[in-house]
Structure formats: structure tokens, C-alpha cells
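Minutes, project check-in
Item: structure for the 299-residue chain
Input as provided by the requester:
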Amino acid sequence: MQEKQSLVRSVIEDLGIARHINNVVIEGTDSPWLEKALIKRKKGILDVKTYIWMDEAFLYGRIYRLFLYVADVLDETFLYDSRITPDEEKEPFVRDRYNQIWSLYVDSRMERLGIESFFDRGLRRNLFIDLESRLGWTEAGKIFDSLWSREMFTYPEIVDLSYHLEERFPGQPPTPGSSCIERDLADSLHNPSVTGHLDRLDSPGAATVLNDLLSFTAYSCRDGFITPCHYGIVFLFQNKVLLEFIPSGGHVFVLSILDPRSGTYDTRQVGAEADVEDIQKTIRERYAMLAVTSKGQFG
């Protein structure tokens, strides 16, 4: 711990912020991903509490980057204002983007200073593209390169980009009817919805069949619930998946129905011409079987 305290003193002297810091507390953490610096301001002087990974890898660089955030807060030209910070609970995606952009600003300066750190350009790029995959990997990569090469940000600019990144970096407008696999994948993973899965079907007839089966299931199979997930729509009953509806993006969807007797699923493709009444009959029968087995009465 003495080594870390000595490095902290050296870093804050190098950054020219030592006179603005009253006290620094160092606590250990188990991962570099959990490293952070918390500040408390008292009449223009800061108390800083740091959480530092106890490993020795890139130790100086990891401490230096933490205090770059502190230096930004103290820099009058950075215009730090906590009142405009995106709310983590109300706006989680905006807050994630805010964290990424400020971290990118910190780590790009680390690279220009020649200070090695755990969070290098390659890692930052991957993290940014993963977060912004809705834009498409190519477009997100171009935006990253532009942000990384920028030498100076103010705090209001970082906050503005957090809310309006697409507007500040307008890409090529999508061709009508064209799809972006990265955006589709991101929407499925991060924002699954029943309506979104219905919209994936090109056939209005198939979408109508799927909607009718969902409505029938919701009405006829009590004490269960329909929920979207990243790959489709499922109906859960007694902690079991009774039905899976998986739109394929074409003219059919895949329907899997649990057979409670064998514990296996019967799977079929369903399109606009499907016999809806026959499927409803099967759903009703399998639901009744599962309801009985859940009470321990099925032999």
C-alpha cells in the first residue's frame, strides 16, 4: 500500500493538482474494471477516495488515469458541472455512453503521453463499438476514431454527445428496406419486445397467425405469462417454457411446444396458411398436461 500512496503523491504532483487535494484514501479492489475515484469537495479542496486493483500490472498508468478524471474536474476550462450529469437510474444507456466518452478522452491522452495502461486504444475501441453496435460496427468504428483523435473536450460537450451522438456524427442514411445486422442484433439483445418480434416477420399473414396464437395462449392458459427474450417470445408456466415462438425474419416462424410426458419439444414451422385451430388444440392439451404434472397427479 505504501508503494501506491507514493505513486499517488507523484501523480498528483505531475498533474499539478496536489494543492487542490486535501486527502487521498486508497482501497483495494479485485478487478481493474472496478477501479474508480470518488471526490468530495470542501470549499474548493477535494477529498478523494480511490479503489485500485491490487495487481501490479500497469500500476502507475492505472493510478495516473484515475487522477486524470480528478484533474478534469479541477480544470476550470473543462467546465465540470455535476448538475448536468446523466442520471444512472433514469437514463442508463445515456449514462453508459457518457462513461465511455469521458473514459475515451482520458485514455486517448494516456496514449499521447506514452503512459501504458490496462485500458489501451484496442480495448477502448472494442468497448465503444459494442455499446454503439446499433449504429453498425463500421459507423461506430469511424465515430470512435474521430473521438479518439480529438485532443480536447469540455464536460458539456461530453454530456451533449452522450445524448446526441448520432446527430453530431450523421452517417449515411440507410437505403429504404435495407437492414443492418448489427443493429438488428443489438435491438434483439438489449430491447426485446413482442411487437419487435412480430415486426421481424415479412408476411402479414404469418404475423396475424402469431398474434392470434399469442392472444389465445394469454386467454386460455391461466397463471402463466408471455415474455419476449433476445431470440423470440416464450410462454412460461410453472417455471417451465411451454411455448417458444421464434420469428425468422421471413414468411414463417418456428413454434416449439413442450410435451410434458417426454420433456421434449415438438417443433414446426408456421406460416400464413397454418391450421390455427389445430395448433390451439395442441396448446390447450399440453397446457392441461403440464398443469396436472405440476400438481403431482400425472402418472
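Outcome recorded: Confidence is low (pLDDT under 50) at residues 172-179.
No further action items on this chain.
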